[in-house]
Q: What sequence folds into this?
């Protein structure tokens, strides 16, 4: 298991480098000169060229990319913003917890809402409960998060006055942005849970468990659900990674001071280096989340855990036989 984790960590290196190269290339060829935008329309060409030289914008693509990778991966320095001269690492570090709170809470709510609907739909296939559950899933997937956020804000903040419409000062501020994102995720979780449960409950061991007289609740939640969780965990892990970047819309709607709003303001002002740093942090986080999901498989599915243990025993057996020979 340890070797597998090390192998996955090593595979993250080319993935992160590839993402960095792709984002750097896109922003490099994007029209717009940060130096000209910084100095304004009245700036002389000499002043613009002087600032471009100071920022290193006149260097070639290869030189700029090499410097950025060296500073980011070896010195852990994402640079300074073109427009306020603040450290991008410090800006992201101050906003990163807010984005994580939104992402984790939204995925938790999606699991809390979607899994019961998926289980109910699978157990009551082709009944009105199945139809209602899948209608909910379809609505959740179909409604855009920004529209849901605006509707929730109008209802609970403007009309009823129960929750604050903007900001992120405490738990009451977390409800609306997390719920607006969670509804789409809950629809995906419900559909995946239904599909996985339908496949599992038709297996012979489920029929055997029922024949032994076990209660239906124990059969569904202990035997069937445990074996149906692998695809659901994959969906939840992917959803969590997507929410790190997808929270941009919710953060913009509810004025959450997270990485999303930071990226939006950086894109508007052509602060390319801030966009690069934000995307790099999200990519690394997403890769680590996928690694955590793969490790979690071994603790949920005994077959995966026994596979690693059997390989270790076989290797030990070969070493013993070799020594005896």
A:
């Amino acid at each position: 298991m340890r070797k597998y984790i090390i192998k996955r960590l090593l595979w993250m290196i080319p993935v992160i480098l590839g993402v960095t190269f792709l984002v750097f290339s896109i922003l490099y060829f994007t029209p717009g000169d940060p130096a000209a935008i910084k100095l304004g329309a009245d700036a002389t060409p000499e002043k613009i060229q002087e600032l471009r030289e100071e920022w290193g914008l006149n260097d070639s693509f290869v030189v700029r990319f090499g410097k950025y990778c060296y500073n980011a991966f070896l010195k852990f320095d994402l640079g300074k913003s073109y427009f306020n001269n603040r450290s991008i690492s410090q800006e992201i570090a101050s906003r990163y917890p807010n984005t994580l709170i939104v992402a984790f809470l939204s995925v938790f709510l999606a699991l809390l809402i979607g899994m019961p609907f998926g289980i109910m739909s699978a157990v009551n296939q082709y009944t009105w409960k199945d139809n209602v559950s899948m209608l909910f899933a379809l609505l959740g997937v179909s409604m855009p998060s920004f529209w849901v956020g605006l509707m929730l804000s109008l209802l609970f903040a403007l009309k009823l006055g129960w929750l604050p419409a903007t900001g992120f000062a405490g738990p009451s501020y977390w409800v609306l942005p997390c719920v607006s994102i969670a509804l789409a995720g809950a629809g995906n979780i419900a559909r995946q849970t239904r599909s996985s449960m339908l496949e599992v409950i038709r297996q012979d061991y489920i029929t055997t468990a029922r024949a032994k007289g076990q209660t239906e609740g124990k059969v569904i939640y202990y035997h069937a659900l445990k074996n149906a969780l692998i695809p659901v965990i994959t969906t939840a892990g992917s959803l969590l990674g997507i929410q790190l970047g997808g929270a941009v819309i919710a953060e913009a709607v509810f004025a959450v001071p997270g990485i999303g709003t930071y990226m939006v303001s950086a894109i508007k002002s052509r602060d390319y280096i801030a966009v690069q740093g934000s995307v790099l942090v999200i990519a690394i986080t997403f890769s680590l989340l996928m690694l955590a999901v793969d490790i979690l498989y071994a603790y949920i599915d005994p077959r995966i855990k026994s596979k690693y243990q059997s390989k270790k025993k076989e290797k030990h057996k070969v070493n013993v036989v070799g020594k005896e020979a």
Notes: Residues 216-254 form the longest helix (39 residues).
